[in-house]
Design brief:
Layout lengths: L16 H14 L8 E2 L1 H8 L3 H13 L4 E2 L5 E2 L5 H25 L2 H19 L3 H17 L6 H22 L9 H11 L3 H20 L7
Antiparallel strand pairs: 1-3, 2-3
Helix pairs in contact: 1-3, 1-7, 2-3, 4-7, 4-9, 5-6, 5-8, 6-7, 7-9, 8-9
């Protein structure tokens, strides 16, 4: 038997249109670009992305599988409305995983990493004082995931992403009902950085957990009542 090999051929990696759209929609969901209950129509998204319906349809199918979207009868989708029990479940899970990630990040924190977090918070504060909610929400997302990537875990950040896919559409709602000016919006981010500088893992965790609890407290009363 002759064994054939192709040592000169390297694996080919090509990002498809569909994968780019899927990633962009994921980011938009986590950053609160869509509202709870909002319908996402394939034709509208295809026009916005400047593509055919097929990659949009496949991206929606994946996001439905990730439980980030609810499928509708016409093969489009809708942003889920989360009820009180779902929100409580997400709160518990976020507290456990993001609190752990914050502690691990403190253990591995470098001066450069802390400086990067501080720059994000500075931008967040400027956006808050201008009541630029969209920019503020984007910086909030960047802050949390920059910190969680510092944890060194390959497992935790992707799981947290899945949680944010579900709560992201409610982040914008929380930001709109909370006056974040004069440092109020980022105060817990500032507190977490101060704890991180001291190497105080539990302190960093406590600040992040308080931040998470404030978010859920803001939106829980607005959640639809479950039958």
């Amino acid at each position: 038997m002759t064994r054939t090999s192709f040592p000169e051929i390297a694996p080919v990696r090509r990002e498809t249109v569909q994968s780019r759209i899927h990633q962009e929609l994921r980011t938009m969901l986590m950053a609160g670009h869509f509202q709870p209950g909002q319908a996402l129509k394939i034709n509208d998204l295809a026009a916005a992305f400047g593509t055919s319906a097929q990659p949009i349809r496949e991206s929606i199918r994946q996001l439905v599988a990730e439980r980030a979207l609810d499928a509708t009868a016409n093969r489009s989708a809708r942003i889920p409305r989360l009820g009180p029990e779902q929100l409580d479940d997400l709160r518990r899970t976020r507290l456990a995983l993001e609190g752990l990630a914050a502690e691990l990040a403190t253990e591995r924190a470098t001066e450069d990493g802390i400086a990067a977090l501080s720059r994000i918070v500075d931008e967040e504060l400027r956006a808050d004082d201008k009541r630029d909610i969209g920019t503020s929400v984007a910086h909030n997302l960047n802050f949390h995931f920059t910190m969680y990537r510092m944890s060194g875990s390959e497992i935790i950040p992707p799981i947290i992403e899945g949680l944010w896919l579900r709560v992201g559409p409610h982040v914008r709602t929380a930001a709109e009902i909370f006056d974040a000016r004069e440092g109020r919006g980022a105060e817990l981010h500032v507190r977490s950085i101060e704890a991180m500088r001291k190497g105080d893992g539990p302190g960093t965790r406590a600040a992040i957990e308080t931040d998470i609890n404030r978010f859920f407290d803001l939106i829980r009363d607005m959640a639809p009542t479950e039958d």
